[in-house]
Amino acid sequence: MKLPSPRGPLSDAVRTLVASPVDQPADVRAPDVARAAVDATTDLLTDEDVQLALYVMNELAYRGFDGVDDDWEWDPELLRVRRVVEGAFEEDLRRRVEVPGDVAPERGAVAAALFAMTAPSPGPSVARYVAKRATREQLEEFLVLRSIYQLKEADPHTWAIPRLTGKPKAALVEIQADEYGGGDAERMHCELFASTMRGVGLDAAYGAYVERIPALTLAALNLMSLVGLHRRLRGATAGHLAAFEMTSSLPNRLYGDGFRRHGFDEATTLYFDEHVEADAVHEQIAGRDLAGELAQQEPELCHDILFGAAACLYLDDLAGEQTLTAWTAGASALRPAA
Amino acid sequence: MKDSRPVSVVACPDGPLLVRGDAQLVDEQGKPVERRRATVALCRCGASAIKPYCDGTHKAIGFTAP
């Protein structure tokens, strides 16, 4: 994919740095720019500049960018920049997110806490809006917003596999194998999502819409990369995945309904229909065999497991509210096209 | 999807039955039910819209397993 356009001084410095040769780096004092950016921001989660810069740095660990030297992924100077931003991001989330405090590090107790945190709630949601009210244009915006993660669906959590052992590892592999189509490339969830995008006439190329993605949606993905890329945060990855799976089956039914309401065929809604069935399996495995067993195996991770879940829900709620606010006001939920 | 593991069925607390292994699912006429994944969740609350599979509805109706 192409390097996205800068949205402020930090994403500009990161872009300039990675666009230069790794052995002759541009002199942009990026760590200082990063420190200034996180010190100056009034809200890190909605800061377009900071979230885009973090997205770009993280993406070097996934697919990289056209014309960017792959060695930037492990460049000490850029890692210093990432550390400054990630440190502020994690601190901000830990300050904001409420984590249930009285959960015993036991399989059943942790699974019960996760199911309680993710229990279906009434009231407005993106899923209900999509099912009943979204226009065709809003359905497209919905897919564009999700594409930044869904075209690499499951990848951020896969980083945790080598950091786990025993039952939690087997559970994560069982879930991820299904995410990756059980050995069938066409049934990989990212491929099913690409088919849905093409079904409504969108460009399914990886990263095609990054310029249109607002900070909060990038922040939700940056959270997955943060917890996925750091072994220290493997507990948070397990909790994040559990929360993600536990809030998926019922909404996906509603997403599918919205696309059926607009007359889209089964091939286009397959992604959603697949998730209704798959995630009803995954949530059970993720709650008990992954998160619950991990808490039992490594009790000191119990808090992080619940933090990962709570942070996932917190950012998804904020991003959902932002989308609904825009749509109900008749506005676009995306950043304006360049 | 063929799954060569020995059959196991896990009754999830207040949730579905998780089935792993080489179990054949058939309808009341004995016709095979399509199985698209190695591990499947069978509805136990009776309210799923994709029976015999679970769609998570047990959580919305507050199902408690007997």
Percent range of helical residues of chain A: 55-70%
Number of structural units classed as domains of chain A:
2
Q: Structural class, from helix and strand content of chain A?
A: mainly alpha
Total helical elements of chain A: 15
The SSE string of chain A, one letter per element, is HHHHHHHHHHHHHHH
Strand content of chain A: under 5%
Write down the Rg of chain A.
19 Å
- Write down the secondary-structure element order of chain B: EEEH
Determine the CATH topology of chain B.
Answer: Ribosomal Protein L9, domain 1
Looking at how many chains there are and whether they match, the oligomeric state comes to heterodimer
Q: Please, how many helices of chain B?
A: 1
| Mean pLDDT rating of chain A | 97
How much is the radius of gyration of chain B in Å? 12 Å
Stretches of chain B where pLDDT is under 50 for at least 5 consecutive residues are none
Task: Tell me the structural class of chain B.
Answer: mainly beta
CATH H level, superfamily name of chain B: CDGSH iron-sulfur domain, mitoNEET-type
Number of distinct beta strands of chain B:
3
Largest interface: A-B, 26 and 22 residues
Protein name (chain A): Iron-containing redox enzyme family protein
InterPro entries (chain A): Haem_Oase-like_multi-hlx
What does this structure look like?
Chain A has 338 residues and is an all-alpha fold. Chain A folds into two domains: 9-96, no CATH class; 107-328, Up-down Bundle (Heme Oxygenase, Chain A). Chain A has 15 helices and no strands. The longest helix of chain A has 32 residues, at 266-297. Chain A is globular. Chain B is mainly beta and 66 residues long. Chain B has a single domain (1-66), classed as CDGSH iron-sulfur domain, mitoNEET-type (Ribosomal Protein L9, domain 1, 3-Layer(aba) Sandwich). In chain B, strands 1-2-3 form a three-stranded antiparallel β-sheet, with no helix packed on it. The A-B interface holds A 108, 111-112, 115, 119-120, 174, 177-178, 182, 187, 248-250, 253, 274, 276-281, 283-285, 288 and B 1, 10, 12-13, 15-16, 18, 36-41, 49-50, 53-57, 59-60.
